[in-house]
Specification:
This protein is mainly alpha-helical. About 80% of the residues lie in helices and about 0% in strands. It has 13 helices and no strands. The protein has helices at about 5-20, 20-30, 35-55, 65-85, 95-100, 105-115, 120-140, 145-175, 175-195, 210-235, 240, 250-260, 265-285. Helix 6 (about 105-115) packs across helix 8 (about 145-175). The protein is globular.
Length: about 290
């Protein structure tokens, strides 16, 4: 398999794993507060990351890597999980999923700013079209969507795009799983005390679905997904492979409808299908 296909295959697996994040978060919020869910998933994933770093005898990152790793931690360990959890208190996961379609454009922009990438003009045309489809859908559904939830989702997308681009840039030198592991370990001194401080009083009252949701967002969304995702971005380019995120809403809709029995409207489905076409175009001209 060529590097090109390895990049897209790794990126696709990462997106497939991430597509379950928002539905799982929605399930977890039935038992956990947003701040606890955010801190607990970071602590669990950090423990796994620390074990891997020790077992593989990885060298410590350079001092110059600490600030970029902190940016990754703020973007994808704290920012996106917390902001989406807060947003899902006022909107459902199907509505929140649509905003994820803005991630590729945001990631590409930060890829230009932070990694010096220069995608073609036609690539930008497809990328902007995909983002416009998402924005148009969001605006058309404001009557049924809390403005606060929409604002939190936009902030989450900005934080995530920056974390993706910064992490991908570091992955070219440190490796994909190493970057997310070090970012998680770096966040541990803050997230562990926070998780213990807001620990639910009665853990026995937590439902099985709540524990499963926490396990998914901790192990898959916060760790395993990033191993594939950062590898794909590092091999194939942040802007190029980042367009695979346009597929994430379509895959997440299936989970939201199948697992949570949330309504997936025809406009939602039509928007997702048009976004798939934008992915195909951007991939062709990246």
């Amino acid at each position: 398999m060529t590097t090109y296909w390895k990049a897209w295959a790794s990126g696709f697996i990462g997106v497939l794993i991430f597509s379950g994040s928002l539905p799982a978060t929605r399930v977890g919020l039935a038992d956990f507060a947003p701040l606890f869910l955010t801190s607990a998933r970071a602590v669990i994933a950090a423990a796994l990351g620390a074990v891997l770093l020790i077992a593989m005898r990885e060298k410590r990152p350079l001092r110059s890597d600490l600030l970029p790793l902190a940016v990754v931690a703020l973007g994808v360990v704290v920012g996106f999980p917390l902001l989406t959890a807060l947003a899902l208190k006022s909107i459902n996961s199907a509505q929140s999923i649509v905003f994820v379609g803005l991630l590729p454009l945001c990631t590409a922009l930060f890829g230009v700013l932070r990694a010096g990438e220069r995608p073609s003009a036609i690539f930008w045309m497809f990328s902007v079209t995909g983002a416009a489809l998402v924005a148009g859908f969001a605006l058309s559904t404001t009557a049924d969507m809390a403005i606060a939830g929409a604002g939190l989702m936009i902030a989450a997308v900005l934080a995530c795009g920056l974390g993706y681009a910064e992490g991908a840039r570091l992955s070219r030198r440190l490796g994909g799983w190493q970057v997310i592991s070090w970012a998680l370990v770096l966040s541990l001194p803050v997230m562990l005390p926070l998780a213990l401080w807001i620990l639910p009083e009665d853990l026995g009252a937590v439902s099985t679905s709540g524990w499963l949701a926490l396990a998914y967002v901790s192990l898959f969304s916060m760790m395993i997904g990033f191993i594939f995702w950062y590898r794909g971005l590092a091999l194939g380019g942040i802007a190029s492979v980042g367009q695979l995120q346009l597929l994430q809403p379509f895959m997440s809709f299936v989970l939201a409808a199948g697992l949570l029995h949330e309504k997936v409207s025809l406009p939602m489905l039509a928007t997702a299908l048009l976004i798939v076409l934008c992915v195909a175009g951007s991939r062709r001209f990246a």
